[in-house]
Each structure stands twice: as structure tokens, then as C-alpha cells.
Design goal:
two-stranded antiparallel sheet, two-stranded antiparallel ribbon, 4 strands, 55% helix
Length: 233
């Protein structure tokens, strides 16, 4: 994955997006080096004429395609490749695609609407750091993903060295802050809309809230018991 992320960084730095990152387009040399192949859907980010001509149509492979590609958005950028690489990474470490259905349309709808099952829930041997990277790569909203391929590379290399993925955790922290603010304002989110970047982080927040309320109840009962004991003496 680091090899492919490095190849994408090289491509993205030159304004070129692949748009069809998937296992079938990855080749391994006899030296064990992963190479990204098949540039048939690649285009320059600055090619607005081609982008306009393709508007409204989904280009990519359903199992690995990004939400913005599914919607046929005009302004597709490197973050679409990051999503597809994340889906490929997910498949590699879990042995299954992120979303599956009876037909391509069903698969793409799940990319748009269904919450991702954390990969380490499927493969318990996967490190938490790797799982966090994948979830950050596969955020529904591209603004919640890595904002550069270099950031992704830094996290991948950090996890390989046993260090935490700093950029992924910053992404989750910002996502949770946004969601906590939304909760405070009692914002209604339409059914099927995904606002949370990491199911794991959401669970952590919910657990923290539950623990907080339990502690309050215990303290209240303890104080009440002391008062009752004092009155009965």
C-alpha cells in the first residue's frame, strides 16, 4: 500500500488523478515492489473541458469507487484516489470488499449511504492504527479524508514503525468536534446521511457520555445515603 500511495503522490503532484485504483490495477514485480497500472481513466485535474463532458456519469469500479465519482461530480480530485486506495486496502486486510450487494447499483448506493464496518472488527489482528488510516481514507465526505497524499504516506510509514497515525487522528478529532456541536444545536441529520468519520470514535464518545452519567448517579446516591444516615442517628 505504501508503494501505491507513493505512486499516487507522484501522480497527484503532477496534477494527474487515476480514478480507477483497485487490486486488479496493482502489479507486483519479482522484487516485491507494487506498481500502479492501467491509466485508462486517468485525467488531469485541470482538464475542465473533459470534466464537464463527463458530468453526471460515474467512472470507476463499483467496489472501489468514491462517492463523488458515483455522483458524477465535475470537480474530482486526488481525494477520490485516496478513497479508492482505502477500499483496496480494506479488501486486502479483511479479505472482503467494503460494500457488497446483488448488483453494481446496490454497491454504489452503499458507498454513498452505508456506514463502513471498521476493518479491525472483521480482522481483529489488524492494528488500530491501520484501521484508523483506512477509515480516514474512506470518509464519505472528501473533506473528512486526508487532504494530501503526503499526509497519507506519513501515517502509513508511522504505523509501519509502530507509531500512531497522527493525521488520521486529527481527522477524527475534527469530525467528532463537528458532531458534538451538531448535537448541542440539535441539528437533524436526514436519514442515510453519514456525518461521522469513524464508527470507533463515535462509540468512544458514546461510552464516555454513558460513563459520565453513571458516575453522576453513583455520586448522587452516595450523598443521599450519607444524608439519610445522618438524619437517622
Amino acid at each position: 500500500i505504501i508503494h501505491i500511495a507513493d505512486a499516487l503522490a507522484h501522480s497527484h503532484d503532477r496534477g494527474l488523478i487515476h480514478r480507477d485504483v483497485k487490486p486488479k490495477n496493482i502489479m507486483i514485480t519479482t522484487d516485491g515492489v507494487a506498481k500502479l497500472a492501467h491509466m485508462g481513466l486517468a485525467r488531469e485535474v485541470s482538464d475542465t473541458q473533459l470534466a464537464q463532458s463527463e458530468a453526471g456519469r460515474a467512472y470507476g469500479t463499483p467496489y472501489y469507487i468514491s462517492p463523488e465519482q458515483i455522483r458524477g461530480e465535475v470537480e474530482i480530485d486526488f481525494r477520490a484516489d485516496i478513497y479508492s486506495l482505502g477500499a483496496t486496502f480494506y479488501h486486502m486486510v479483511t479479505g472482503r470488499v467494503p460494500f457488497d450487494a446483488d448488483n453494481p447499483t446496490g454497491v454504489m448506493l452503499k458507498h454513498l449511504r452505508e456506514q463502513l464496518t471498521p476493518p479491525d472488527h472483521i480482522n481483529p489482528e489488524l492494528s488500530i492504527g491501520s484501521a484508523e488510516i483506512i477509515e480516514a481514507m474512506m470518509a464519505k465526505d472528501r473533506n473528512d479524508r486526508y487532504q494530501s497524499t503526503q499526509e497519507l504516506l506519513e501515517d502509513l510509514k508511522a504505523v509501519r514503525q509502530g507509531k500512531p497515525p497522527i493525521h488520521a487522528r486529527k481527522i477524527f478529532d475534527m469530525s467528532q468536534l463537528t458532531n458534538l456541536e451538531a448535537d448541542a444545536e440539535i441539528v437533524n441529520v436526514p436519514s442515510g446521511t453519514t456525518r461521522i468519520g469513524s464508527p470507533r470514535r463515535s462509540a468512544d464518545v458514546s461510552l464516555w457520555k454513558t460513563s459520565f452519567y453513571v458516575v453522576l448517579v453513583v455520586l448522587f446516591l452516595s450523598i443521599l445515603l450519607n444524608i439519610v444516615q445522618a438524619l437517622t442517628k
